[in-house]
Design a protein that fits this description.
The protein is of the alpha/beta class and 393 residues long. It has two domains: 262 residues, Purple Acid Phosphatase, chain A, domain 2; 128 residues, no CATH class. Helix content is 30%, strand content 20%. The protein has 13 helices and 14 strands. The strands form three sheets. It has a seven-stranded mixed β-sheet. A five-stranded mixed β-sheet has the order 5-6-9-11-10, with helices on one face. β3, α5 and β4 form a beta-alpha-beta unit. The longest helix is centred in the middle third of the chain and has 17 residues. The protein is globular.
Amino acid sequence: MEQADSERYIFISDLHLGDNNSYRPDKQGAYPYGWTNKHVVELENFLTELDQHEETSGTGEVMIVGDLVDTWVCPSALNPPSFDDVLSAEHNSGVISALNRVASQKKLKYIPGNHDMLIKRETLLKYISGLEVVGNATGHVKFYDGLLVAEHGHEYCLFNAVDTWSRHNGHLPMGIFMAQLAAVGTYEKNDKPDYLEILEKFVKSFSPNKDFAKQVLNAIRNYEIKDVGAVATDPFLMNNMDGLGAEVSYDEVINVFGDIYDQWDKCSGSGIPATLAAAGDGGILRPAAELKYLIPGHAKIAIFGHTHKYEVKRGYVGAEDSENAPHEASRASVIYGNCGTWIDSRNCNFIVTEKCTVKDENRIYLRGYEYTFSREKRKGAISGPLDEAYVVV
C-alpha cells in the first residue's frame, strides 16, 4: 500500500509486552508479573483507531521508542522467556496484528530499548513485516530527523545502558538482575510496583560511591525479602541469555557489576557523567537530553522513553527567545519530551509532532496526549493536548 504523505508523527514507548507465563503463570498460587497485561486491550485499540481520531489521523509515521517486548521482567527462579515466546504469546496477538496493519498503511519504525536490547532484526520481522528497525539493538541507537532526535534513553542510565566492558562479549547490564528481583514480589505476593519505581526509590537513598551498585542491589533484595515477604532466590536463572550460562549467583552479579559507578566515566562512551547516569536511574533523564543534544544545538527537540514518566518541558536559549517566551507560552527554543508508558499501573501516553507553516514560519509542534479505552463502548478516547509547544526551524 502507498505510504501516507504526512508531516505528523506519533511516538510511543515502553509497551513491555510479556510472554504467556507473565500473563497467566503455570505455578498454582502465583500471580501475573507482566507489566502490560490489562493494557494490551488499550494498545491494540489505539493502534487500530489511529485514523479515527483527529489527534492522530493523517499520521505518516509511527515510532516505537524502545521496550516493545520484555524479557527482563521475570522472577529470578524462572528461566527468562525468549523474544519468540513474547511475540507469539496468545494475549499479544491483537497488538501484533494491529502493528502489522500500521506497517502496511504507514511507516512503522522501532528503536530497541534496554528490556529488548538483544533482539534481532529478523526476529521482529518474522512477526511484524514491514517494520523498520533503527540501528543495532546492542549499540547506542537514535533516530534523527533534521532538528528532532528520538531514542529510548537507557544509554544514559548507570544500571541499564548496554554494558560492553564488564564481561567479555557481554551486553546485558546489572538492570536485568534488578528487574528479576523486583518481579519476585509480584509473582509470589502480588506486589505491584515495577522495578523502575523501586530502583528510583533506592537510587535516591544512597550517595553515589564505589559501593553504589552493591548498595542499590542489596536494597532491592532486602525490600523483596523484608517489606514484601517474598523469597528472593539465589541464583538467578538465565537460560544461557547473552552468554551468561544457565544461572548466575548473587555474588557473581556483585563481582561483575559492583564497580560500575567507578568504571562508567571511562568506559560508557555516552558522554554523560556518572552522577547524571545515576540520576537517570532515579527517573531524571531530561538533564542528559539537554547535555547531549539540546544545549550543544545538535537538536531542538529530544524525545526519550525509559522512565515511564510522561513529560514535556520547554526551554529557552538566548535573549530573543527569552523575550518571546512570556508573550507566546507555547513557543520554545528547545523541547524535551518523554513518551511515558503503556504498562498497567500508568496512564497510556504518547507524543505527536507535526511540521507546519504558520505566519510564514516553519515550525515543529510537539503535543502530548493520553489514551483511554471504554470496554463497554468498545471505543477509545484521546485526552489533550496535555501539553503543547513548538520550535521554529
